[in-house]
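[job 4471] stage=fold_predict status=RUNNING
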Amino acid sequence: MRAARYLPNLITILRLASVPAAVWLIVAGHLTAAFWVFAAAGASDAVDGILARLLHAHSALGSYLDALADKVLLVSTFVALGFRGLVWGWLVLLVVCRDLLLVGFAVFMHSRGLQTRVEPLLISKVNTVAQILLAAVVMGQAGVMPVPPWLVAPLSWVVAATTTVSAAAYLASWRRRVSAAEAEGTRPSSERGGGRRRA
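[job 4471] inference complete, writing structure tokens
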């Protein structure tokens, strides 16, 4: 039974390992196969979450692996689709720069000894769903599902807007933490300790 507790992390690692296959299939033009690999990876995200709850197997490592696998899958998929000219180049750059910016700021906060873990914002969840839908629609046009071509442009603008807003929201949240820490550091030690005790 103890071994079963590692199953969610194993599924997450397999999702991470599927990224090179998805990228190669997209670059090679095998969009139908890439779609199914992408869909299976997305389904595994739901499966490992359910298993983690059922097996009470939540862990810090699992949380980081899950977030890493999701980001690597989405960013790599967008880069591959951009390479094929199936997604606007500037949109790919926006998605990649947003994640690099957040990682860089998280490293900066860690170097200052501040907590970097932030609960996912609603706008970030909307952004993730929009990115998944856009990637699925673009690959699905290969014949997997009847998707009208005009749907790509509106979805692309939704991804662009939510990517920008979510990046700004995270940076604002982290900036407030930095300001609060700086304000705490400038307070007299007696105030930080709650003042002197009365006799």
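[job 4471] summary: The mean pLDDT is 82.
[job 4471] exit 0
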